[in-house]
Design brief:
The chain is α/β, with parallel strands linked by helices. The protein has three domains: about 350 residues, Up-down Bundle (ABC transporter transmembrane region fold), CATH 1.20.1560.10; about 180 residues, P-loop containing nucleotide triphosphate hydrolases (Rossmann fold, 3-Layer(aba) Sandwich), CATH 3.40.50; about 70 residues, P-loop containing nucleotide triphosphate hydrolases (Rossmann fold, 3-Layer(aba) Sandwich), CATH 3.40.50.300. It has 21 helices and ten strands. A six-stranded mixed beta sheet has the order 6-7-8-3-9-10, sandwiched between helices. The chain has a four-stranded antiparallel beta sheet with strand order 2-1-4-5, with helices on one face. Strand 9 and strand 10 form a beta hairpin. Helix 5 runs antiparallel to helix 11, helix 10 runs antiparallel to helix 11 and helix 15 packs across helix 17. The longest helix is centred in the middle third of the chain and has 53 residues. The termini are far apart.
């Protein structure tokens, strides 16, 4: 009873998953279930109409041989098959189109989820692996595969229906001749019951074998999926990356990559062989059982034919249909197993889509005065990354006044960028809180709050769109304002010299005439994008790391022009670039340890003094050598 309840629970869960998936697919590919059933019906009906009418034709040829009847039978067979074949081809094209569309919509749903997901989750390794597994396993299962799995199940059900419909005639037919021996036994009702029992026993055996096969197949597929992701990294993600090719050549990485990928490929090959061995084992068992039952069925139908129960043509019809009873049961069993298998991939998709955003959106509007730079205060803020053992920020308290320019300095890993992400609400504090003009920023409308910040991160991203779309972050833009942002960032002359100017595509992913810009030019475009947004807060995280000294000097000399009366936060490892800021905050191991002006911090002879002298000595020693 317990096992039966568990089975019902699994079936109930599978049906709920399939209903949800089908409803989702129907929303962007209407009538996909109808086309799956229509295709299955046409293909199956074509076979059974062929069996039935071919048997009638043979019986007519060996019997009365009526020409008119033969013409009608042949014409009916031809026209019905032509109609069903045409309809099945139409439905199959729709199925293929729907499958492709489903996969694309699946990717769109994943991307839409990424847009609204808490940024902290986007850096969670488990969630990243979950999404990658969905993409990598798309050929094994998912929304797109549901269409094919349903089609196979429908064909199994229709096989069983049509074959049972035709075979039901056979069980009640009796011979017209006096019979003795095996022929008399075959023509009795007991023989019919025996055949039914044989088919049921064969179906039960194959049901169990198919269930074991599906379980083993899932285990192997899951192991292969992990190995395949690693193999895909070597063969596609890494070697297809044009930037990686430079390292491959310069550091002679060929042997390293070859050895590593060969080991992974060998492991992957073993799993493929295991999958094939599992399939061959099932096929062999199916063949043995099918051959035994086919022999019994053929003997039974042949003896019924000798008894005069029907003609030679019907012998072919009934023998095929009895065997197809078994095939139908097998296909239904395999179809349900395949759907159950596919549901595991669909459930992973829904598990990702259903992840809570976890970002408290807030309901309060941003105060009107905050549309101009407001006062931001960190109140004993601490933050720990997911699965991390230590705090990235610990007990941080300081005030960022309206219109103030503050530089954030410190060693790598000291918490500078984490502080910026907390300020921008990409993360929420683990402990403590941050206020804007006295209001906890978690209580403010999330989208309105984000609109207050223009940020250039050190790992910023440009896209393969036009210059204008990259800077404006929109297909619509104010051209005058856009050129102003480009001029202030030092990129206007370069863009003006491009053949298509603002419409020039960046990179060559979509356009052959796209321009491959340098790292420094990309950084200037990122700064222009921050300026174009014209937000009250400007945050520059290592904004000149890829610039040459001349370009860096130009950016610094225009810094006041860039930020105007805005609040500016500036992160840099080059301490000489921080002198124009009102205050300098020194971070060390996640803590704010010093805060003040340049001269004040130097006089305290603390961490800032140490960092400043280390860089000064470096430049002095190089100047002396020169």
């Amino acid at each position: 009873m317990k096992r039966l309840n568990e089975t019902f629970a699994v079936v109930k869960k599978d049906l709920a998953t399939m209903r949800r998936a089908a409803k989702l697919i129907e929303s962007f590919t209407p009538n996909f279930v109808l086309h799956a059933f229509l295709f299955s019906f046409c293909v199956t009906a074509t076979s059974y109409i062929g069996y039935y009418l071919s048997a009638e034709i043979i019986d007519e040829l060996t019997g009365l041989k009526r020409l008119n009847t033969l013409v009608i039978l042949v014409a009916t067979l031809l026209l019905s098959e032509l109609f069903l074949i045409f309809l099945s081809k139409f439905s199959w094209r729709r199925i293929r189109v729907n499958q492709i569309i489903s996969q694309q919509w699946e990717e769109i749903y994943l991307n839409n989820k990424s847009f609204v997901m808490n940024y902290k989750n986007m850096e969670d390794q488990e969630i990243l692996v979950m999404r990658q597994a969905i993409v990598d396993n798309r050929s094994l299962g998912g929304l797109g595969q549901l269409i094919f799995r349903l089609t196979n199940l429908f064909r199994g059900v229709l096989d069983l229906f049509f074959s049972a419909l035709i075979v039901s005639e056979l069980l009640f037919l009796r011979g017209s001749k006096p019979l003795t021996g095996l022929a008399a036994v075959a023509d009795s009702g007991y023989a019919s019951l025996f055949i039914i029992a044989a088919v049921i026993c064969g179906a039960v055996f194959l049901f169990k074998e198919t269930k074991k096969f599906n379980k083993k197949r899932i285990e192997i597929a899951q192991r292969r999926s992990f190995v395949q992701r690693i193999l895909h990294y070597y063969l596609n993600d890494y070697l297809d990356d044009s930037k990686a090719c430079k390292d491959v050549h310069m550091f002679a990485q060929k042997e390293l990559i070859h050895d590593a990928s060969s080991k992974i490929f060998h492991h992957w090959g073993l799993l493929v062989k295991a999958m094939q061995k599992n399939s061959w084992g099932l096929e062999n068992r199916l063949s043995v059982v099918n051959t035994i039952i086919s022999g019994v069925v053929n003997a039974f139908v042949a003896l019924k034919t000798l008894a005069g129960a029907f003609g030679v043509g019907s012998f072919l019809k009934y023998s095929v249909c009895i065997r197809n009873l078994l095939v139908g049961i097998i296909n239904i069993t395999y179809g349900f197993g395949a759907l159950h298998d596919n549901n595991q991939y669909i459930e992973k998709f829904f598990e990702y889509v259903d992840l809570p955003s976890q970002t408290h959106k807030g309901a309060l509007p941003v105060p009107a005065q905050a549309q101009k730079p407001g006062e931001v205060v960190f109140h004993n803020v601490s933050f720990c990354y997911p699965n991390a053992d230590s705090y990235a920020i610990k007990d941080l308290s300081f005030t960022l006044k309206a219109g103030e320019r503050i530089a954030i300095v410190g060693m790598n890993g000291s918490g500078k960028t984490t502080m910026i992400k907390l300020l921008c609400r990409l993360y929420d504090p683990t402990e403590g809180h941050i206020t804007l003009d006295g209001t906890d920023i978690r209580e403010l409308d999330y989208e309105e709050y984000l609109a207050l910040f223009s940020v250039v991160f050190q790992d910023f991203k440009l896209f393969s769109f036009s210059v204008a779309e990259n800077v404006a972050a929109s297909a619509e833009y104010n051209e005058e304002q856009l050129w102003g942002a480009l001029k202030t960032s030092g990129m206007a002359e370069c863009v003006a010299a491009m053949p298509k100017a603002l419409q020039m595509p960046i990179y060559k992913d979509f356009e052959k005439d796209g321009v491959e810009i340098s790292g420094g030019e990309a950084q200037k475009l990122a700064i222009a994008r921050a300026l174009y947004k014209n937000a009250p807060f400007v945050i520059l995280d290592e904004p000149t790391a890829a610039l040459d000294p001349v370009a860096e000097y130009e950016i610094y000399s225009r810094f006041n022009e860039m930020v105007k009366d805005k609040t500016a936060v500036y992160i840099s490892h080059r301490l000489s670039s921080c002198r124009f800021c009102d205050k300098i905050a020194v971070f060390h191991e996640g803590r704010l340890i010093e805060l003040g002006g340049h001269d004040e911090l130097l006089s305290e002879r603390g961490k800032y003094h140490e960092l400043w002298n280390a860089q000064a000595q470096y430049y002095q020693s190089h100047a002396a050598k020169a």
